[in-house]
């Protein structure tokens, strides 16, 4: 909390819904190098070593993967994560090896849109992109 204003909220995590939160948390932990804190089969935290903002994964038996790019009448993307990398080709290959898939639609040459194992879109991008 802010020392100047105790009513000021502090972002600690983005929460992803998943039908298999253990698998998804382990994917994000492997991709980012962060630690997975398994607090049970329905709620997991993925955090950097410095304790900064991280991800949480929550079980959702009614989860529907978003569609990218958006299409009328389908579950749209409500957010995506942006991850800066130094080597786009190598980072994309690594993400694919860990279980991501490459989206069919790629809007820019210096950005790769990928989908995590549950279909959440995320982007790998080069500095300055």
Automatic annotation (TrEMBL):
The protein's name: Glyoxalase
Origin species: Curtobacterium oceanosedimentum
InterPro entries named in the record: Glyas_Bleomycin-R_OHBP_Dase, Glyoxalase_6
Start and end residues of each Glyoxalase-like domain: 14-125
